[in-house]
């Protein structure tokens, strides 16, 4: 490819981007698309609904860009939480690093490459791209020192920026921990592996254990139930309620509201139906014992202080490490209830199985790629499947098969990857939604780096073996031969895949179609669904482009302008999306940053190794040797950061929690928190005011909890593979709990079942 | 080598063993050698000293074998602690596994190998050893199924035995934790990375931190001082004492006893010298401020309960992970004081440096091996160093150079390895002696397996490259080619190195020489020194032989009888040594077992991989494929054990500690324990009744603490690189503390300096 070809490609892609962005600026003004483009604003009721038809609605405008650009860190933090801010800092940090790299590479490196060999240069537009790569520098050239120096400058500036960014984000994470001071998860631990005993129910075991060992700090606990079976129990309860209504209508017992009943502490004594007819008493007994049978060996235990919960969540509890396994509980909306009922002893084998499955998928993904490449060779297909010969004579079909089908097939396979990885992460058994997303994020990151970079580099060159494990000293040389050859491919990859992904991200074509289908075909007036930020697909993508940027910055500096444009646009687009589109349901509290840091260090070290190999191949052994201390320093820097910052992302400092406890005690807020704790974790929620419909929406029910009562918000949650609930009003927002009206609830043994008329979009302003 | 050669070699080695064992049985009866052969008994005063000369003293007798054989588990536990028992269980477990392997291999495998090819067998004595290896089975033979079956049986029985052994040792470890219920280390944490502040001393910082965050559970603390500088302070204190004695002899202040003074809690208020003359007051002020200056950023903090200490030792304390780093403290005699003063922020870099140095040593050890091998080729030496030509014409010198020098040089290099590894482990910065030994043990284990097995196997065959990293599927095949060829070498290795090491172990030639020199040349009547068990050299040796046993059991079953003899003798010898010779100063509480388990699993998997390769080479692909599930099952079994048992060896279960706390509270023992805690950790001890000699023995002073007072036992500790103190009376033995006579001690600020006439071998019976 020559310069003019590259510029043409860049022009086409720029044009497409402009068209899509203009289209977006029009589409976002249409009231019918509010659900697609303003999910976050809708959730916060910050949107002025525009009903009137005006000319203004159909004129493209760059106002969204201005708004996105002007959004402050505080706004981002308020809308998207710390994770969103961390994600944007990834993009900004990449921007900065590659700006420096672009400056360094445009002055000494690029001219040196261009004039590296004595040759007659053609007119610049028809110059081959290879002339601008390091391949054009002649062997043994003294100018390779400039490349070595540039590598040093890029590495050092990247490390310095990373250090300050890590420090900054650690500070923000601590502020986040302190800021979410009324976070119920800080008082709660998840106990798994509760031993089964024939005499006691699980709940009794937990109570016994906690009162025995944590008598002073134990508050109460809440069992986890088998998700599948609870549906049946809920049905039973509903039937029973019907029966009660029939048998004792005069006692004013029937109520329009039945509370979820499976949430709330279980330390209350058994109250309830003593004044009821005997049959009802028997029924309730049955349900009570049924419920006990459906308990699984996991429970949420609430403590009186954060430090007590932290102490109980760390280390080993029992002399059998498979029993009484404790962890700090996730936030209420973050709990992945389905996985809590997985027996703890299964987890290690699930982890191994999903690890193997992910590695298998990574390796076997070569098969669809091979299939796609075979589609490009029609002759072979005709040989293998002679009956197709007739069909393949049609020119249009041939064009479709060779022109579109391969990329469509590949795209379909690639689109399936995040869902498959999410499935693997679900099977793995994380206890929180954010944990599952984080796990999927890592899997997709490894997948992309392997399949986009390594498979392309290794299969595109002479090596052509998939698993190349040769002696270590050859690795650098082999990479040095293979990587520069693919420079043109990755340049166009950034142009097409990178820029296009941003257009697609801002247009949300899938959601737009859904919305259209939902509103104009099904004639439904509600907005179809809300999305949470797909960190598991976007973080790997941004990190992949960073990875490509590092590896090619020195070898083929022409990639840098395109990357810079990508990161700049990404900054704008994701800012806009975070402020307007995505709803934050749960967050990891910035735990994605170490992944960014480690990936960048990996990219840096790989770049240095490749550079070492290239210097070696270009017969500049001194420059090659000079990169070795750089590699060592980079690794040491990484180790230092791991020691200095990483523990904060793994554990919560005891000091901070003790201070928070003390503050709350001094303010007299503790009793209030204890009250809220009893009801804030809600495994099941009813969805309708019709008593016969007390059936959870699906296996992963969701409920939002405000004011101590489980309200149900029937949001059609179409987050990819994600089914969390919407934290419209968090306990941390300091809502005062109102007393539950006991007459509105229904006692089953020591549990209340309570129903409430659900109000679609009963959204509170924050 | 043929059978007769092997039998001759075995005969010679058996004879040598018999001679050494008889010699030992005579030498041990000599009263002058009691210090060498009965260190443990001497320490416990369980030895009847025999002074009379009798004929019986010079007759070899097998009585020691009987005694060693009859020693019960309880005796071993009492003499050598849990670590010794775990070590013996390693030997016994290896015995059992290889007995099963010997039975399996002697019936189907050995005859199949022997009659594997159609050939004319010679007279059995002159038959080559290769006839008995798997190499003699012809390609594609159906009998390879028998080998595959044998592999299954050996693997399964090894796994079953390992499982029950792991379970058993976990139980013993728990019993050990419960049994050492008055262990002061359970109440103590080590705080490192105390931040420096210009206003406060480190001690004040610790007090502030603990009273702020652990007000209810904090008892007191004890600072760690720079070891080098404290010697100076001790001298100053001694001088001051002299001065006091001069100025105020009438006040009865001078005493023969000066307490160590740097130990004991620092929460007492400053008392002391107010009635003294002003000069003394000034002096004491100077010393006090001096002492504060010599504090380093580490302290031992004592808590009121075990659970509080556990809670404070886990997780992250401060929002800066490099500050306020907490760990459970080692036992008093186990503390490696010198390393406590290492700044915490240095540790990670020390760890990396020692890791790299160890790997370097492992790889570079090939150089002395190469040098030794070059000695075998005199012609080349003569070519390189022509001036040696004259010398090398002398036949005797040639014999020495070619015959003895190589093995002597190699032995010297090999002898240096444990010391070097111990040095590396010291530099690494472990806080306990046992931790240091454990770290050295791992290093030596990896060193031996790499340098004895892999380097021999790889350099001895056609591969002849040191770093062989080829594609994974070839590894099995390459090992399968290389390993069987070295069978004869390893058979003789077991015979010579294995059996000889046992003879050397029981004879203790080095100690015997030292003793002789000390008693008959220096005319010193005391016993020279006591030894603690060298786990860091013996465990790797036993595991190496186990490793060889597994890898060759199937390939060359003739190795098994020699190995069985080795393990049987090892059982006897080590039992005898533990009961009689080695003194237990500190222990890890069975933490060596996971190393044994992991090494055995590694050996098993490597055996299976080699077998897979061999089956492949012998063109039995089905048998080869059938070993794959075996490998997977073995790895899964290992992972299960890691989940089920390993956490107990890493952490102490909270449940156990809470129970212990409760017991002690109910018995009213807590106050007593608190009193003992104040004085049980003693960084420095004085060694003489001469006041001017209050100089620590060396940088790593030792002190034994009984009855709450720091007694000094001047044992000449010549444990290899090891300088721990002798736990003659442990706090766990429930000695009642006697009140310290305040008039016998000397106050410096809020610290007492106390001197005591040391009584050589003032050993108390336990």
TrEMBL record, chains A, B:
InterPro entries: Csc1-like (IPR045122), CSC1/OSCA1-like_7TM (IPR003864), CSC1/OSCA1-like_cyt (IPR027815), CSC1/OSCA1-like_N (IPR032880). Its main location: membrane. The keyword rRNA-binding does not apply. Residues 186-339 form the CSC1/OSCA1-like cytosolic domain. GO terms for molecular function: calcium-activated cation channel activity. Coiled coil: none annotated. It is found in: Membrane. GO terms for cellular component: plasma membrane. Residues 6-165 form the CSC1/OSCA1-like N-terminal transmembrane domain. Residues 350-615 form the CSC1/OSCA1-like 7TM region domain. It is a multi-pass membrane protein. The keyword Ribonucleoprotein does not apply. Pfam families: PHM7_cyt, RSN1_7TM, RSN1_TM. This is CSC1-like protein. It comes from Actinidia chinensis var. chinensis (Chinese soft-hair kiwi).
């Amino acid at each position: 490819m020559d310069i003019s070809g590259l510029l043409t490609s860049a022009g086409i892609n720029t044009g497409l981007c402009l068209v899509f962005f203009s289209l977006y600026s029009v589409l976002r003004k249409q009231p019918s698309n509010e659900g697609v483009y303003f999910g976050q604003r809708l959730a916060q009721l910050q949107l002025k609904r525009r009903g009137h038809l005006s000319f203004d609605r159909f004129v493209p405008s760059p106002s969204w860009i201005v708004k996105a650009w002007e959004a402050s860190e505080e706004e981002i933090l308020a809308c998207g939480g710390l994770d969103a801010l961390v994600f944007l800092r990834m993009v900004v940090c990449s921007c900065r690093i590659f700006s420096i790299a672009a400056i360094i590479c445009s002055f000494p490196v690029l001219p040196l490459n261009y004039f590296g060999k004595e040759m007659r240069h053609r007119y610049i537009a028809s110059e081959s791209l290879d002339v601008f790569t390091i391949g054009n520098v002649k062997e043994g050239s003294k100018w390779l020192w400039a490349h070595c120096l540039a590598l040093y400058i890029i590495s050092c500036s990247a490390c310095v920026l990373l250090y300050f960014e890590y420090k900054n984000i650690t500070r923000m994470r601590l502020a986040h921990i302190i800021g979410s001071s009324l976070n119920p998860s800080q008082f709660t631990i998840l106990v798994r592996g509760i031993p089964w005993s024939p005499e006691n129910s699980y709940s009794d075991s937990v109570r016994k254990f906690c009162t025995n060992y944590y008598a002073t700090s134990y508050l109460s606990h809440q069992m986890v139930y088998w998700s599948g079976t609870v549906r049946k129990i809920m049905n039973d309860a509903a039937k029973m309620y019907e029966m009660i209504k029939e048998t004792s209508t005069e006692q004013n017992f029937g109520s329009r509201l039945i509370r979820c009943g499976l949430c709330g502490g279980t330390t209350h004594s058994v109250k309830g139906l003593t004044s009821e007819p005997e049959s009802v008493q028997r029924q309730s007994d049955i349900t009570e014992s049924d419920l006990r049978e459906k308990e699984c060996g996991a429970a949420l235990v609430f403590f009186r202080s954060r430090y007590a919960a932290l102490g109980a969540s760390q280390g080993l509890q029992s002399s059998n490490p498979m029993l009484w396994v404790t962890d700090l509980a996730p936030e209420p909306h973050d709990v992945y209830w389905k996985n809590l009922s997985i027996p703890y002893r299964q987890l290690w084998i699930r982890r191994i199985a999903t690890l193997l499955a992910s590695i298998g998928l990574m390796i076997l993904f070569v098969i669809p790629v091979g299939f796609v490449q075979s589609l490009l060779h029609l002759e072979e297909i005709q040989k293998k499947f002679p009956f197709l010969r007739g069909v393949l004579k049609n020119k249009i079909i041939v064009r479709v098969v060779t022109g579109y089908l391969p990329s469509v097939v590949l795209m379909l396979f690639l689109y399936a990857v995040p869902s498959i990885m999410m499935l693997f992460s679900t099977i793995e058994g994380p206890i929180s939604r954010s944990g599952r997303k984080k796990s999927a994020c890592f899997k997709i990151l490894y997948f992309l780096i392997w399949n986009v970079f390594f498979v392309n580099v290794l299969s595109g060159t002479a090596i052509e073996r998939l698993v190349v494990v040769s002696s270590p000293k050859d690795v650098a040389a082999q990479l040095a031969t293979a990587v520069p050859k693919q420079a043109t491919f990755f340049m166009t990859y950034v142009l097409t895949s990178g820029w296009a992904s941003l257009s697609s991200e801002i247009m949300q074509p899938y959601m737009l179609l859904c919305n259209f289908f939902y509103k104009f075909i099904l004639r439904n007036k509600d907005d179809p669904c809300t999305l949470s930020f797909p960190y598991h697909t976007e973080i790997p993508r941004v990190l992949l482009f960073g990875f490509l940027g590092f590896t090619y910055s020195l070898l083929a500096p022409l990639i840098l302008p395109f990357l810079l444009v990508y990161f700049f646009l990404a900054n704008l687009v994701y800012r806009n999306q975070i402020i307007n589109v995505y709803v934050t349901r749960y967050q990891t509290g910035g735990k994605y940053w170490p992944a960014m840091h480690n990936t960048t260090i990996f990219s840096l070290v790989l770049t240095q190794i490749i550079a070492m190999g290239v210097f070696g191949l270009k017969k500049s052994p001194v420059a090659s040797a000079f990169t070795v201390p750089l590699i060592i320093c980079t690794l040491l820097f990484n180790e230092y950061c791991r020691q200095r910052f990483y523990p904060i992302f793994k554990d919560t400092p005891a000091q901070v929690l003790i201070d928070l406890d003390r503050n709350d005690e001094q303010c007299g807020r503790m009793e209030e928190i204890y009250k809220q704790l009893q009801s804030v974790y809600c495994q099941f929620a009813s969805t309708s005011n019709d008593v016969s419909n007390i059936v959870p929406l699906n296996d992963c029910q969701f409920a939002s909890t405000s004011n101590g009562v489980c309200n149900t918000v029937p949001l059609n949650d179409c987050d990819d593979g994600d089914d969390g609930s919407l934290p419209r009003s968090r306990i941390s927002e300091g809502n005062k709990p109102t007393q539950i009206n006991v007459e509105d609830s229904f006692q089953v043994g020591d549990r209340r079942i309570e129903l409430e008329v659900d109000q679609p979009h009963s959204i509170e302003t924050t």
